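Last lecture ended with a question: if I hand you only a sequence, what can you say about the shape of the protein? Today we answer it with a concrete record. The protein is Flavin-containing monooxygenase. Below, first the input exactly as provided, then the predicted structure, then a couple of comments.
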Amino acid sequence: MFSFSDQNGFCGRRCVWVNGPVIVGAGPSGLAVSACLKEQGIPFVVIERSDCIASLWQKRTYDRLKLHLPKKFCQLPKLEFPEEYPEYPSKKQFIAYLENYAQKFDIKPQFNECVQSAKYDDACHLWRVITVSTNGSTQSETEYICQMLVVASGENAEGVVPEIDGLKDFTGEVIHAKDYKSGEKYAGKKVLVVGCGNSGMELSLDLSNHNAKPSMVVRSSVHVLPREIMGKSTFDLATMLMKWLPLWLVDNILLILTWFILGDTQKYGIKRPSLGPLTLKNHHGKTPVLDIGTLERIRSGDIDVVGGIKRFNHTSVELVNGETLDIDSVVLATGYSSNVPYWLQETEFFAKNGFPKTPFPNGWKGKCGLYASGFTRRGLAGASADAIKISQDIAKVWKKELNHKKQKVPSHRRCISTF
Ligand SMILES: Cc1cc2nc3c(=O)[nH]c(=O)nc-3n(C[C@H](O)[C@H](O)[C@H](O)COP(=O)(O)OP(=O)(O)OC[C@H]3O[C@@H](n4cnc5c(N)ncnc54)[C@H](O)[C@@H]3O)c2cc1C
Ligand SMILES: NC(=O)c1ccc[n+]([C@@H]2O[C@H](COP(=O)([O-])OP(=O)(O)OC[C@H]3O[C@@H](n4cnc5c(N)ncnc54)[C@H](OP(=O)(O)O)[C@@H]3O)[C@@H](O)[C@H]2O)c1
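The predicted structure:
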């Protein structure tokens, strides 16, 4: 990495030439690509807007969170989870694993730098990545210039806050799920949880555990599956069945088994989509909920299920069925979005929704040295698969260029670059 400051010059920002790729994001995806590159001796720079690695896990998730898939599906390339970890590691254990991962592979991101724009310069065939320092009161800009750009800023970079009539007039607390830590402070309170994905379901359970009175909004339909079927992870079972059977058949098997374990969820106001859980995930990216106890609380009446919202008033919410509920607080478990369209000036590879246009398994590589890691809607397993493919591809390009340079420069004039 070579850098120079030009505070008084025409660009007024620090300029950094990067040998190898710039990786945007130090979450699991960015770390996994970094580790794979490190092993092959390829230099890189990781840029992270936060002041720590895995900021989603460290700063924007609730206390009781555990990985919801077995650990064998969640470990990153080249380092297994410690043997003593349980089948479903806690958030704390996962963060400890990632800290150890970064240390083992000597990954040192540029913290507190947020990528504001990244653009391919056709004239010089290089990426120009501009960051703004997010540390302290004075903002400084840096421009990184590189041949390859790995986008690893995450599918869940920003919390989605929907516009709902009257929400601004509601006088109680309104937070997004990313800012929810625990139900402790909600004891005795009536809390409306908007959304019934994995976040909405688990936050409702947490609120109920802390003696709050949650009402969960289910405006459309959702597949709720048990986390385990006959002692085996449902995900593991589905993966195994998919090796032999078509998707529609696996969907039907899962739904029949689910019916035996969870009963008819429709009885409790949770309609099932017409497409099966895996088909829906594959075609529309909608994740099924893996139940870890919420359904039991719905059955017992500790968690109320309500339909769509019409509007909020000062201290209440009106539902589309005409019912009005008095509420103290609102938690928006309304999902997340990618922030790629806000900073990446490229429209061929990435779509408007901030995901690669090409579906899995081919959405990891664009043109001109552009890569996407962790946009497969397949969680940590998808991030690992991307990292391996991306690092192998970069290594190929890197080695080819290195050989090319060696052939061009007489051996007595070769210099060793530092990074
Ligand atoms: C509540 C919750 C629970 C989850 N549980 C699971 C689970 O159990 N199993 C599973 O497989 N998946 C789970 N997921 C999905 C999860 O997103 C991934 O597993 C994993 O975090 C993806 O890693 P990532 O590195 O791609 O994205 P992230 O973890 O989001 O990391 C992206 C990083 O990029 C940084 N960044 C973003 N924009 C910029 C920018 N412009 N400039 C600089 N840095 C930037 C962010 O600060 C962040 O640190 C969960 C998601 C949520 C929200
Ligand atoms: N490890 C874990 O246990 C765990 C925990 C939490 C999250 N996660 C993962 O994190 C990712 C995000 O999950 P998520 O649950 O936060 O988001 P999500 O799956 O996108 O769910 C968002 C929910 O909000 C609802 N919604 C959005 N706008 C609404 C509105 N205006 N009114 C009413 N409802 C509205 C959606 O309903 P519609 O379906 O009708 O649009 C949906 O139910 C997923 O990949 C998930 O698996 C994992």
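Comments.
1. Residues 160-335 form a domain with the FAD/NAD(P)-binding domain fold (CATH 3.50.50.60).
2. The two ends are 5 Å apart (CA to CA).
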